[in-house]
Write a structure and sequence with these properties.
alpha/beta
Length: about 220
């Protein structure tokens, strides 16, 4: 049975992992008869947002502790991730990815990926194992994997322009589509980067997992 590592960025779309994306991703792994283990950084969130008002709140929350809300407490510190133990590494989206896993929310194309997250991505790439991302998370792949092909939904957006500035290639996609870079083993789907419904997000998550499984099974060129 294949086993996926899923990295979370907290809980809540404005300052953590987007809940619909995270849950549909975990559900899709199960529906493909595979297992998963969640990981998250064990450090404070960059900021905390009141999801009702959208305003910043003067309090501190831990990324790992918040991610445990989504993972039903079954989450490990990202330092414990080893590429050799898993078949693939996956990221859901949410603005917390751009704040807690990297600093894209603040620096755009000048972003840096946090060292603990960068290690997981680079180690997986060096092990020649698939990496998957939903929504905004592919910006991290653009930073760390030269010439990678990824999607953030529509061409001509500031985000698509930014990943090209970082040396990546952008592929326009629609709801449920998966951009497959079979050479780099990087697979991405737009989710809420488009004006998506929950079903659109689920379709993308399901197809993302399915595409990676097909690749692992040698069913795709």
């Amino acid at each position: 049975m294949k086993k996926f590592a899923v990295v979370l960025a907290g809980c809540g779309r404005k300052d953590g992992s987007e809940i619909n994306e995270a849950i549909t991703l975990l559900l899709s792994i199960g529906q493909h008869h595979c297992e998963y283990q969640c990981f998250a950084p064990n450090r404070p969130q960059t900021e905390v947002i009141d999801h009702l008002t959208g305003e910043k709140v003067d309090e501190e929350r831990n990324i790992l502790t918040e991610a445990a809300r989504l993972a039903r407490s079954q989450v490990k510190p990202i330092e414990e991730y080893k590429a050799e133990d898993y078949d693939a590494l996956l990221f859901s989206g949410g603005y917390g990815v751009a704040k807690n896993l990297c600093d894209y929310a603040y620096k755009g194309a000048e972003m840096e990926v946090k060292p603990d997250v960068a290690r997981a991505i680079v180690e997986t790439r060096e092990a020649n194992k698939p990496i998957g991302g939903m929504c905004i998370s592919p910006v991290m792949f653009a930073k760390l994997i030269p010439d990678v092909c990824i999607t953030l939904g529509n061409d001509g957006t500031p985000d698509a322009d930014n990943i090209m500035k970082m040396g990546a290639n952008h592929v326009q996609t629609e709801h449920g589509d998966v951009c497959a870079d079979n050479e780099m083993l990087v697979f991405t789907t737009p989710a809420y980067m488009l004006d998506a419904t929950l079903k659109d997000v689920y379709d993308g998550a399901f197809n993302l997992v399915g595409t990676i499984i097909d690749t692992l099974d040698g069913k795709r060129d």
